[in-house]
Specification:
Length: about 160
């Protein structure tokens, strides 16, 4: 059975816990299954806004499409492991995550290749508009074998989403 495509703005449900919410963000990390952030529509006890929770896309099922209209995503010209630079701070490294939001925002996670006091420098995420490409990743992606696990580059979460 083919999995239904779940997009930003859809109402989705976790198949294991039953947690239900609107897909407000999608996160793709290098070499992993995309994770979707679900924002519950109901307030918690006491009237507070409940926190969004993240789930692997394969663990979710579509409940209702387009309960909220997603904004058009900002164009993302980057691929995983491209070498990039944050134009405002000069922070350089490899693209290790791409995060898209319901409001159209796209953030690029960058992992530095340098060390500080013997430890890798923490990765940081920046708006895609503030990133400059230094070199393109030319490594060919290995073909995955077995199972129905989705390849992150094959997932379409919204029109214009480039993973």
């Amino acid at each position: 059975m083919k999995q239904q495509e779940i997009q930003l703005g859809d109402l989705a449900k976790d198949k294991i816990t039953g947690f239900t919410g609107v897909v407000v963000t999608a996160v793709v990390f290098n070499a992993s299954v995309p994770r979707l952030g679900l924002q519950p529509r109901e307030l918690g006890e006491g009237g507070y806004v409940r926190s969004k929770e993240y789930f692997d896309i394969n663990q979710l099922e579509l409940v209702t499409p387009k309960v909220i209209e997603a904004s058009k995503l900002i164009k993302n010209p980057f691929k995983m492991l491209d070498t990039v630079k944050h134009t405002l701070t000069g922070f350089e490294g490899k693209v290790t995550s791409i995060v898209t939001w319901l409001n159209g925002c796209v953030r690029i996670g960058i992992q530095s290749t340098t060390f500080d006091k013997g430890k890798p420098v923490d990765d940081l995420a920046f708006p895609v508009q503030e990133i400059e490409l230094l070199t393109t990743n030319t490594t060919k992606e290995k073909k995955r074998t077995g199972g129905d696990r989705l390849n992150p580059t094959e997932v379409k979460l919204a029109k214009g989403a480039d993973f």
